[in-house]
Amino acid sequence: MTNILITGSMGQVGSELIDYLLASYQGEILATDVRKVELGDKNERIQSEILDVRDASKLNELIDQYHIDEIYHLASILSAKGESDPFLAYNVNLSGTVNVLNSSVAKKVKKVFFPSSIAVYGPEAKRDDAGTRHDSIPTTMYGITKMSSEMLTQYYHRKYNLDVRSIRYPGIISYKVEPTAGTTDYSVEMIRSAVKGLPYTCYLREDTKLPMIYMGDAMKATLRLMNAPQENVKVRTSYNIMAYSMTCKELENEIKTIYPEFNVSYVPDSRQEIADSWPRSINTEDARRDWGFDPSFDLHNTVLDMVKNLKVLIH
Ligand code: AKB
Protein backbone atom coordinates (compact mmCIF):
# COMPACT_ATOMS: atom_id res chain seq x y z
CA MET A 1 0.00 0.00 0.00
CA THR A 2 1.23 3.47 -0.84
CA ASN A 3 0.34 6.49 1.31
CA ILE A 4 0.40 9.77 -0.59
CA LEU A 5 0.71 13.38 0.51
CA ILE A 6 -0.48 16.10 -1.89
CA THR A 7 0.51 19.74 -1.41
CA GLY A 8 -1.72 22.39 -2.99
CA SER A 9 -4.69 20.01 -3.02
CA MET A 10 -7.28 22.74 -3.48
CA GLY A 11 -5.89 24.05 -6.76
CA GLN A 12 -7.00 23.32 -10.32
CA VAL A 13 -4.76 20.24 -10.60
CA GLY A 14 -4.78 19.05 -6.98
CA SER A 15 -8.54 18.86 -6.69
CA GLU A 16 -8.72 16.57 -9.74
CA LEU A 17 -5.60 14.54 -9.01
CA ILE A 18 -7.15 13.24 -5.76
CA ASP A 19 -9.77 11.25 -7.70
CA TYR A 20 -7.23 9.83 -10.13
CA LEU A 21 -4.96 8.77 -7.25
CA LEU A 22 -7.84 7.17 -5.37
CA ALA A 23 -8.68 5.12 -8.43
CA SER A 24 -5.15 3.88 -8.95
CA TYR A 25 -3.69 3.46 -5.43
CA GLN A 26 -4.88 1.34 -2.50
CA GLY A 27 -3.31 3.41 0.30
CA GLU A 28 -4.38 6.59 2.08
CA ILE A 29 -4.20 10.11 0.73
CA LEU A 30 -3.34 13.14 2.81
CA ALA A 31 -4.67 16.23 1.04
CA THR A 32 -2.92 19.39 2.28
CA ASP A 33 -3.27 23.01 1.35
CA VAL A 34 -2.59 26.41 2.85
CA ARG A 35 -6.40 26.80 2.97
CA LYS A 36 -8.77 24.37 4.69
CA VAL A 37 -9.26 21.42 2.34
CA GLU A 38 -12.90 20.81 1.44
CA LEU A 39 -13.32 17.09 0.91
CA GLY A 40 -17.11 17.08 0.45
CA ASP A 41 -18.37 13.52 0.23
CA LYS A 42 -14.98 12.19 -0.79
CA ASN A 43 -13.67 8.75 0.06
CA GLU A 44 -12.83 7.55 3.59
CA ARG A 45 -9.23 6.92 2.44
CA ILE A 46 -8.60 10.68 2.36
CA GLN A 47 -7.66 12.92 5.23
CA SER A 48 -6.77 16.58 5.20
CA GLU A 49 -4.42 18.96 6.99
CA ILE A 50 -3.51 22.61 6.62
CA LEU A 51 0.07 22.93 5.37
CA ASP A 52 2.07 25.92 4.20
CA VAL A 53 4.93 24.35 2.24
CA ARG A 54 7.32 26.96 3.64
CA ASP A 55 6.89 25.26 7.03
CA ALA A 56 9.45 22.43 6.90
CA SER A 57 8.85 21.14 10.41
CA LYS A 58 5.10 20.72 9.86
CA LEU A 59 5.83 18.92 6.61
CA ASN A 60 8.21 16.55 8.42
CA GLU A 61 5.64 15.91 11.15
CA LEU A 62 2.92 15.06 8.62
CA ILE A 63 5.19 12.69 6.68
CA ASP A 64 5.91 10.82 9.93
CA GLN A 65 2.36 10.92 11.26
CA TYR A 66 0.74 9.62 8.06
CA HIS A 67 3.57 7.24 7.04
CA ILE A 68 3.92 8.92 3.67
CA ASP A 69 5.53 6.98 0.79
CA GLU A 70 4.97 9.42 -2.10
CA ILE A 71 4.51 13.18 -2.43
CA TYR A 72 2.76 15.07 -5.22
CA HIS A 73 4.07 18.59 -4.66
CA LEU A 74 1.56 20.85 -6.42
CA ALA A 75 1.57 23.94 -4.18
CA SER A 76 2.73 26.89 -6.25
CA ILE A 77 2.09 30.57 -6.94
CA LEU A 78 1.22 30.77 -10.66
CA SER A 79 2.55 33.12 -13.33
CA ALA A 80 0.20 36.11 -13.13
CA LYS A 81 0.13 36.23 -9.31
CA GLY A 82 3.89 35.67 -9.33
CA GLU A 83 4.36 38.92 -11.25
CA SER A 84 2.20 40.89 -8.81
CA ASP A 85 4.03 39.40 -5.80
CA PRO A 86 7.41 38.06 -6.97
CA PHE A 87 8.82 37.64 -3.46
CA LEU A 88 5.87 35.48 -2.42
CA ALA A 89 6.31 33.37 -5.57
CA TYR A 90 10.03 33.04 -4.87
CA ASN A 91 9.42 31.91 -1.29
CA VAL A 92 6.51 29.54 -1.83
CA ASN A 93 7.79 28.02 -5.06
CA LEU A 94 11.47 27.68 -4.24
CA SER A 95 11.54 27.26 -0.46
CA GLY A 96 8.50 25.00 -0.71
CA THR A 97 10.19 22.77 -3.27
CA VAL A 98 13.48 22.61 -1.36
CA ASN A 99 11.53 21.69 1.79
CA VAL A 100 9.72 18.88 -0.01
CA LEU A 101 12.97 17.57 -1.51
CA ASN A 102 14.88 17.76 1.81
CA SER A 103 12.08 16.11 3.78
CA SER A 104 11.75 13.40 1.16
CA VAL A 105 15.43 12.54 1.47
CA ALA A 106 15.41 12.74 5.28
CA LYS A 107 12.22 10.69 5.65
CA LYS A 108 13.02 8.23 2.87
CA VAL A 109 9.96 9.10 0.77
CA LYS A 110 10.01 6.71 -2.20
CA LYS A 111 8.80 8.98 -5.00
CA VAL A 112 8.08 12.67 -5.55
CA PHE A 113 6.15 14.37 -8.34
CA PHE A 114 6.98 17.96 -9.23
CA PRO A 115 4.91 19.90 -11.79
CA SER A 116 6.97 22.28 -13.86
CA SER A 117 5.60 24.52 -16.59
CA ILE A 118 6.11 25.92 -20.09
CA ALA A 119 7.10 29.04 -18.12
CA VAL A 120 10.64 27.65 -17.88
CA TYR A 121 11.19 28.86 -21.45
CA GLY A 122 12.17 32.44 -22.11
CA PRO A 123 11.52 34.75 -25.07
CA GLU A 124 14.61 33.61 -26.97
CA ALA A 125 13.55 29.92 -26.93
CA LYS A 126 12.42 28.27 -30.16
CA ARG A 127 8.83 29.46 -30.63
CA ASP A 128 7.55 26.20 -32.09
CA ASP A 129 8.33 22.64 -31.07
CA ALA A 130 10.66 23.84 -28.30
CA GLY A 131 12.78 20.92 -27.08
CA THR A 132 13.18 19.44 -23.60
CA ARG A 133 16.66 20.92 -23.33
CA HIS A 134 16.92 24.60 -24.05
CA ASP A 135 19.24 27.44 -23.25
CA SER A 136 16.63 30.17 -22.86
CA ILE A 137 16.23 32.09 -19.61
CA PRO A 138 12.72 32.60 -18.21
CA THR A 139 11.72 36.21 -17.61
CA THR A 140 8.90 35.72 -15.06
CA MET A 141 9.47 34.96 -11.37
CA TYR A 142 7.19 31.92 -11.79
CA GLY A 143 9.37 30.67 -14.66
CA ILE A 144 12.56 31.36 -12.72
CA THR A 145 11.31 29.34 -9.74
CA LYS A 146 10.12 26.47 -11.95
CA MET A 147 13.41 26.39 -13.86
CA SER A 148 15.43 26.43 -10.62
CA SER A 149 13.20 23.73 -9.14
CA GLU A 150 13.78 21.54 -12.20
CA MET A 151 17.51 21.89 -11.63
CA LEU A 152 17.01 21.03 -7.96
CA THR A 153 15.00 17.91 -8.78
CA GLN A 154 17.81 16.73 -11.04
CA TYR A 155 20.36 17.58 -8.33
CA TYR A 156 18.50 15.65 -5.60
CA HIS A 157 18.15 12.70 -7.93
CA ARG A 158 21.87 12.67 -8.71
CA LYS A 159 23.17 13.46 -5.24
CA TYR A 160 20.68 11.59 -3.03
CA ASN A 161 19.16 9.14 -5.50
CA LEU A 162 15.72 10.62 -4.75
CA ASP A 163 13.18 9.32 -7.27
CA VAL A 164 11.72 12.69 -8.20
CA ARG A 165 9.83 12.90 -11.51
CA SER A 166 8.49 15.95 -13.28
CA ILE A 167 6.29 17.15 -16.12
CA ARG A 168 6.19 20.61 -17.70
CA TYR A 169 2.48 21.29 -17.87
CA PRO A 170 1.19 23.52 -20.65
CA GLY A 171 -2.10 25.41 -20.10
CA ILE A 172 -4.56 22.92 -18.58
CA ILE A 173 -8.24 23.15 -19.53
CA SER A 174 -10.67 21.75 -16.97
CA TYR A 175 -14.19 22.30 -15.64
CA LYS A 176 -14.19 21.24 -11.96
CA VAL A 177 -12.19 24.04 -10.30
CA GLU A 178 -11.70 27.40 -11.97
CA PRO A 179 -8.00 28.19 -12.35
CA THR A 180 -6.89 31.51 -10.91
CA ALA A 181 -3.70 33.52 -11.05
CA GLY A 182 -2.28 31.93 -14.21
CA THR A 183 -1.80 33.26 -17.75
CA THR A 184 -3.55 30.37 -19.51
CA ASP A 185 -6.73 30.75 -17.38
CA TYR A 186 -8.46 32.60 -20.25
CA SER A 187 -9.08 29.25 -21.97
CA VAL A 188 -11.30 28.00 -19.15
CA GLU A 189 -12.86 31.43 -18.55
CA MET A 190 -13.83 31.74 -22.22
CA ILE A 191 -15.63 28.39 -22.32
CA ARG A 192 -17.36 29.05 -18.97
CA SER A 193 -18.63 32.43 -20.22
CA ALA A 194 -20.06 30.86 -23.37
CA VAL A 195 -21.92 28.22 -21.35
CA LYS A 196 -23.29 30.93 -19.02
CA GLY A 197 -24.51 32.89 -22.07
CA LEU A 198 -22.19 35.82 -21.28
CA PRO A 199 -19.77 37.71 -23.54
CA TYR A 200 -16.06 37.37 -22.70
CA THR A 201 -13.26 39.92 -22.62
CA CYS A 202 -9.98 38.12 -23.25
CA TYR A 203 -6.84 39.58 -21.66
CA LEU A 204 -4.61 38.20 -24.43
CA ARG A 205 -4.44 39.15 -28.14
CA GLU A 206 -6.50 36.93 -30.42
CA ASP A 207 -3.39 35.61 -32.22
CA THR A 208 -1.68 34.49 -28.98
CA LYS A 209 -0.84 30.83 -29.44
CA LEU A 210 0.04 28.54 -26.52
CA PRO A 211 0.39 24.80 -25.89
CA MET A 212 -2.60 23.19 -24.13
CA ILE A 213 -3.94 19.93 -22.75
CA TYR A 214 -7.27 18.72 -21.33
CA MET A 215 -7.19 17.82 -17.63
CA GLY A 216 -7.89 14.10 -18.10
CA ASP A 217 -4.91 13.77 -20.45
CA ALA A 218 -2.68 15.73 -18.03
CA MET A 219 -3.69 13.43 -15.16
CA LYS A 220 -3.23 10.27 -17.23
CA ALA A 221 0.24 11.50 -18.20
CA THR A 222 1.13 12.28 -14.57
CA LEU A 223 0.18 8.79 -13.38
CA ARG A 224 1.86 7.15 -16.34
CA LEU A 225 5.13 8.92 -15.55
CA MET A 226 4.85 8.12 -11.84
CA ASN A 227 4.17 4.44 -12.53
CA ALA A 228 6.87 4.03 -15.18
CA PRO A 229 9.83 1.77 -14.26
CA GLN A 230 12.71 3.84 -12.83
CA GLU A 231 15.02 2.95 -15.69
CA ASN A 232 12.60 4.42 -18.24
CA VAL A 233 12.67 7.83 -16.58
CA LYS A 234 15.61 9.30 -18.46
CA VAL A 235 14.77 12.99 -18.06
CA ARG A 236 15.28 14.17 -14.48
CA THR A 237 14.70 17.85 -15.13
CA SER A 238 11.18 17.73 -16.59
CA TYR A 239 9.24 16.14 -19.47
CA ASN A 240 7.33 18.30 -21.96
CA ILE A 241 3.71 17.41 -22.58
CA MET A 242 1.01 19.11 -24.69
CA ALA A 243 -1.92 17.86 -26.74
CA TYR A 244 -2.49 20.78 -29.10
CA SER A 245 -1.54 24.34 -29.62
CA MET A 246 -4.20 26.99 -30.20
CA THR A 247 -4.69 30.72 -30.57
CA CYS A 248 -7.33 32.50 -28.51
CA LYS A 249 -9.25 33.10 -31.75
CA GLU A 250 -9.17 29.38 -32.63
CA LEU A 251 -10.71 28.62 -29.24
CA GLU A 252 -13.37 31.31 -29.82
CA ASN A 253 -14.17 29.81 -33.24
CA GLU A 254 -14.44 26.30 -31.79
CA ILE A 255 -16.84 27.52 -29.09
CA LYS A 256 -18.88 29.30 -31.77
CA THR A 257 -19.59 25.98 -33.49
CA ILE A 258 -21.78 25.31 -30.41
CA TYR A 259 -22.71 28.90 -29.44
CA PRO A 260 -22.76 30.90 -32.72
CA GLU A 261 -23.88 34.11 -30.91
CA PHE A 262 -20.94 34.02 -28.45
CA ASN A 263 -19.11 37.32 -28.33
CA VAL A 264 -15.42 37.77 -27.45
CA SER A 265 -13.47 41.02 -27.32
CA TYR A 266 -9.72 41.22 -26.91
CA VAL A 267 -8.21 43.71 -24.45
CA PRO A 268 -4.64 42.60 -23.70
CA ASP A 269 -3.24 43.41 -20.25
CA SER A 270 0.06 42.71 -18.49
CA ARG A 271 -0.41 38.96 -18.94
CA GLN A 272 0.26 39.41 -22.67
CA GLU A 273 3.95 39.93 -21.97
CA ILE A 274 4.05 36.69 -19.98
CA ALA A 275 2.33 34.75 -22.79
CA ASP A 276 4.66 36.28 -25.38
CA SER A 277 7.66 34.95 -23.47
CA TRP A 278 6.44 31.32 -23.75
CA PRO A 279 6.68 28.99 -26.77
CA ARG A 280 3.69 28.35 -29.04
CA SER A 281 4.32 24.61 -28.95
CA ILE A 282 6.73 22.21 -27.26
CA ASN A 283 8.28 18.93 -28.34
CA THR A 284 6.85 15.86 -26.53
CA GLU A 285 9.04 13.13 -28.07
CA ASP A 286 10.86 12.27 -24.82
CA ALA A 287 7.59 11.66 -22.92
CA ARG A 288 6.18 9.57 -25.79
CA ARG A 289 9.33 7.45 -26.05
CA ASP A 290 10.12 6.97 -22.33
CA TRP A 291 6.69 6.33 -20.81
CA GLY A 292 4.12 6.36 -23.58
CA PHE A 293 2.61 9.85 -23.40
CA ASP A 294 -0.42 9.67 -25.69
CA PRO A 295 -3.12 12.33 -25.21
CA SER A 296 -6.63 11.65 -26.57
CA PHE A 297 -8.35 15.05 -26.56
CA ASP A 298 -7.85 17.57 -29.36
CA LEU A 299 -9.27 21.11 -29.21
CA HIS A 300 -12.63 20.07 -30.72
CA ASN A 301 -13.18 17.24 -28.21
CA THR A 302 -11.97 19.36 -25.30
CA VAL A 303 -14.56 22.04 -26.01
CA LEU A 304 -17.34 19.46 -26.52
CA ASP A 305 -16.55 17.74 -23.22
CA MET A 306 -16.11 21.02 -21.32
CA VAL A 307 -19.49 22.29 -22.52
CA LYS A 308 -21.23 19.00 -21.69
CA ASN A 309 -19.87 19.03 -18.12
CA LEU A 310 -20.20 22.76 -17.48
CA LYS A 311 -23.86 22.68 -18.53
CA VAL A 312 -24.51 20.27 -15.65
CA LEU A 313 -22.40 22.22 -13.16
CA ILE A 314 -23.57 25.73 -14.05
CA HIS A 315 -27.29 25.27 -14.78
C1 AKB B 1 0.02 29.60 -15.76
O1 AKB B 1 -0.61 30.11 -16.70
O2 AKB B 1 0.67 30.24 -14.94
C2 AKB B 1 0.01 28.09 -15.65
C3 AKB B 1 1.15 27.46 -16.38
C4 AKB B 1 1.16 27.42 -17.86
O3 AKB B 1 2.08 27.01 -15.76
N1 AKB B 1 -1.23 27.57 -16.14
Q: Could you say how many structural domains there are in total?
A: 2
Helix amount: 40-55%
Strand order of the largest sheet: 3-2-1-4-5-6-10
Please state roughly what percent of the residues sit in beta strands, choosing from under 5%, 5-15%, 15-25%, 25-35%, 35-45% or over 45%.
15-25%
Under CATH at level 1, the class of the largest domain stands as Alpha Beta
Spatial gap, N to C terminus: 40 Å
CATH fold-level label of the largest domain? Rossmann fold
- Residue stretches low in confidence (pLDDT < 50, at least 5 long) are none
Q: Give the strand tally.
A: 12
CATH superfamily of the largest domain: NAD(P)-binding Rossmann-like Domain
- The CATH architecture category of the largest domain equals 3-Layer(aba) Sandwich
* Multimeric state: single chain
Counted by DSSP, the helix tally is: 11
**Quick check: average pLDDT?**
96
Structural class: alpha/beta
| Cα shape | globular
Write structural notes for this entry.
There is one protein chain. Helices cover 41% and strands 17% of the residues. With 315 residues, it is an alpha/beta fold. α1 links the parallel β1 (4-7) and β2. The longest helix is centred in the N-terminal third of the chain and has 21 residues, at 86-106. The protein is globular. The mean pLDDT is 96. The structure holds 2-amino-3-ketobutyric acid (AKB). Residues 78-79, 117-119, 142, 169, 171, 182-184 line the site of 2-amino-3-ketobutyric acid (AKB). 2-amino-3-ketobutyric acid binds next to loops.
